[in-house]
Specification:
By secondary structure, the protein is of the alpha/beta class. 25% of the residues lie in helices and 26% in strands. The chain has helices spanning 39-46, 62-65, 68-77, 98-106, 110-114, 173-178, 204-214, 230-240, and strands at 2-7, 21-26, 29-33, 54-56, 90-94, 122-126, 132-134, 137-143, 151-157, 160-164, 183-187, 218-222, 245-246, 252-254. Strands 6-5-4-3-2-1-14 form a seven-stranded mixed sheet. The protein is globular. It starts with a strand and ends with a strand. Pfam families: Lactamase_B_2. This is MBL fold metallo-hydrolase. Residues 45-223 form the Metallo-beta-lactamase domain.
Length: 255
C-alpha cells in the first residue's frame, strides 16, 4: 500500500495546510480517506479527482468532509467528465447519516434540500464492524470515542495492515484497532494534560503509548491543530515510541 498525505492539519486547515485527507493506493486502485477543508485543491495537484475509485469518511466533522461538496459539483457539472458519473457512481463509505448530512452541506436552502439526493453520483455505504472489500483493500471500521459517531479504520492489503485512528479520545476499542498492525496513522491534536476534555482527541504521549503497546513498526502522527506545538507533541510521542514521525502535506509512505 502507498499512503499519500493530502492534508494533516487538525480541527481546521492551517496557513497553506489542508485539513484531513489521505490517499491509499494498491493494485491500481485509488482509495480516498477523509476529504476535509482544502483537500480537493491538494488532490488536484497530484491526481485527477475522477481517478478516485472509492472514498471513506471516518466521521462527519467539517475538517474531515467539508470538501465533499466541491467534489459533488465536479461530479455533477464538469462539462467533459472522462466517464458517465451517474453510471459509474463513486462508492462512499461513512457513518450511517452521511447521505443526509452531506446533502445538507451541499444544498443552500430547504427547498433545494428537499429535492437533493446525492445518490445520483454516489453510492453510499454505512460503516460497520464487519470487514468489507473496497477494491483490493479489506477495511474494518471500529467505533471510537468522539462527540459524534466516529470510527477508526483498519486497512489490510498484501499481508500488511494500516490502522488509522480518525479522531478519538482514549478508549478500549483502540486496542482492537491497533492489534497486529504494521503502521499506525494516529491523530495527536495536543500535548498531554490532566484537564483535556474526554472523548475528543489523543495527545502525543497517548499516541506514542498506543503504538508502543501494540508493537507497531511505525507511528505516523497527524491532525495537529495549527495552534498546537508540533515539536512538543512529537517529543511526547518519541519519549515512549522513539520512531514516531510527524506527517507533512505531500509526504508519501509505503506501508
Amino acid at each position: 500500500m502507498r499512503l499519500t498525505i493530502l492534508g494533516c492539519s487538525g480541527s481546521v486547515p492551517g496557513p497553506g495546510e489542508p485539513a484531513s485527507g489521505y490517499l491509499l493506493e494498491a493494485d491500481g486502485f485509488l482509495l480516498g480517506l477523509e476529504f476535509g477543508n482544502g483537500v480537493f485543491a491538494e488532490l488536484q495537484k497530484r491526481r485527477d479527482p475522477f481517478d478516485l475509485d472509492a472514498l471513506v469518511l471516518s466521521h462527519l466533522h467539517p475538517d474531515h468532509c467539508a470538501d465533499f461538496s466541491a467534489l459533488t459539483v465536479l461530479r455533477r457539472y464538469h462539462p467533459a467528465p472522462p466517464y458517465d458519473t451517474t453510471a459509474r457512481r463513486l462508492p462512499v463509505h461513512g457513518p450511517a447519516n452521511a447521505p443526509v448530512r452531506l446533502a445538507m452541506a451541499y444544498a443552500p436552502n430547504e427547498t433545494e434540500l428537499a429535492e437533493t439526493d446525492l445518490s445520483d453520483v454516489y453510492e453510499f455505504h454505512a460503516l460497520s464492524a464487519e470487514p468489507v472489500k473496497i477494491g483490493p483493500f479489506e477495511v474494518t471500521a471500529i467505533p471510537v470515542f468522539h462527540p459524534t459517531e466516529a470510527f477508526g479504520l483498519r486497512v489490510r492489503h498484501g499481508g500488511r495492515t494500516l490502522a488509522y485512528t480518525g479522531d478519538t479520545g482514549p478508549c478500549d476499542t483502540l486496542t482492537d484497532l491497533v492489534r497486529d498492525v504494521d503502521v499506525l496513522l494516529a491523530e495527536a491534536s495536543w500535548t498531554d494534560a490532566a484537564d483535556r476534555p474526554p472523548g475528543v482527541h489523543l495527545s502525543g504521549k497517548q499516541a506514542g503509548e498506543l503504538a508502543r503497546d501494540a508493537g507497531v513498526e511505525r507511528l505516523l502522527i497527524t491532525h495537529v491543530a495549527p495552534w498546537s506545538d508540533r515539536s512538543a507533541i512529537l517529543a511526547e510521542a518519541r519519549a515512549v515510541f522513539p520512531g514516531a514521525t510527524l506527517v507533512e502535506r505531500g509526504a508519501v509512505y509505503d506501508v
